[in-house]
């Protein structure tokens, strides 16, 4: 079974491309269903956030699974022949096998995020997994991968200072907003500002909580579903506002945070017509919630994902990240050891099955003799089974331990040769096949952007379960 991660992120594509290729919840669900209907993909989890769209999948063949995923991504994105510049090969990446699992671990740890170490991705990864699991789109392989990745993410947040050192994208955006507010006359930053949040999803909820804790002068929450806005507002002692009257809402605040899942901009220059007071707008959505003409207005400053990326406004401290990297390397190495050990599992099973067949054949031969009672035959069967199990136990346990060691020889083949077992070998694709699969020419691995399968691989590798 081949494990694949196929996707795009802020590391491989410009923000404008991510905005164009964003995948909403309904499209993500449709993508998963279509992949499983196609037959090539056996399991699928789609992770879609403001700075990544990734498909985690298993397939019987590498090339078949990769082609199916890329074709479905192109379909969901609505790309045709006229969109060659947005072809997956120009902005996507592929991780396979051990590298795919290592990538999942790094994502869970927050090390692949725009803000290094940010904690929000762990919840997003859990939600993506739970959604796929409830839809019966997850089997043993992805279940084990995500369970381990989520456990590692939790361990990192529990055993390191990454939570204190690494703010979320929301916090990073609000830090930039506070700087701008201070520049325009709000000497005390957020505590002097009247703020409003449009959107009550995960990002909007986090923005509301962060603003409430920062002690803003006043706080309003607007959402398409008014009831949801009222619930969120009540938790943080805020006020629910009308979603369909953004002109009025914007006129009452100094800071406006937009974080909806709308496919089109919700805030346009017309909503701010006649406004003269300074306004800071944080656009945390992809696709963007704020139209481009808003940033051109006098007195309006827009903080968006692109500005956060340019400013490198936040991230865990270097020493904290080094601690996280060390812990992650330990986990990946242990997972990889289990993955290597699992390569002999089918052969061990075949060996035990062959032994059982021999035992049953001999017992059947004895059963045809008439000089044994039923009790004697039963005791003989138990004895023979016990002897065979004891003979096989230590070698099969030991061969898994040996196979898990780095650089171990092919113990599976050795077992097949020694016992004349009939077990098909699984051919792994070579790294060069990644480019050939999509007919692109890899570029030097100095930058993940515009590369496919040639970006620097993450250290270590994974395994479906720890021993």
UniProtKB/TrEMBL annotation:
Keyword Oxidoreductase: yes
Quinate/shikimate 5-dehydrogenase/glutamyl-tRNA reductase domain: residues covered: 181-310
Protein's pathway: Porphyrin-containing compound metabolism; protoporphyrin-IX biosynthesis; 5-aminolevulinate from L-glutamyl-tRNA(Glu): step 1/2
One biological process term in Gene Ontology: protoporphyrinogen IX biosynthetic process from glutamate
Annotated Glutamyl-tRNA reductase N-terminal domain residues: 6-160
Gene Ontology MF, one: NADP binding
EC numbers on record: 1.2.1.70
Binding site for NADP(+): 199-204
Record flagged with keyword Oxidoreductase: yes
Stretches for region Disordered: 431-467
Site residues by UniProt (Important for activity): 103
Catalytic activity: (S)-4-amino-5-oxopentanoate + tRNA(Glu) + NADP(+) = L-glutamyl-tRNA(Glu) + NADPH + H(+)
SUPFAM superfamilies: Glutamyl tRNA-reductase catalytic, N-terminal domain, Glutamyl tRNA-reductase dimerization domain, NAD(P)-binding Rossmann-fold domains
Pfam families in the cross-refs: GlutR_dimer, GlutR_N, Shikimate_DH
Keyword terms, alphabetized: NADP, Oxidoreductase, Porphyrin biosynthesis
Binding site for substrate: 49-52, 113, 118-120, 124
Subunit organization: Homodimer.
Note: During catalysis, the active site Cys acts as a nucleophile attacking the alpha-carbonyl group of tRNA-bound glutamate with the formation of a thioester intermediate between enzyme and glutamate, and the concomitant release of tRNA(Glu). The thioester intermediate is finally reduced by direct hydride transfer from NADPH, to form the product GSA.
UniProt remark on domains: Possesses an unusual extended V-shaped dimeric structure with each monomer consisting of three distinct domains arranged along a curved 'spinal' alpha-helix. The N-terminal catalytic domain specifically recognizes the glutamate moiety of the substrate. The second domain is the NADPH-binding domain, and the third C-terminal domain is responsible for dimerization.
PANTHER family per the UniProt record, alphabetical: GLUTAMYL-TRNA REDUCTASE
Protein name: Glutamyl-tRNA reductase
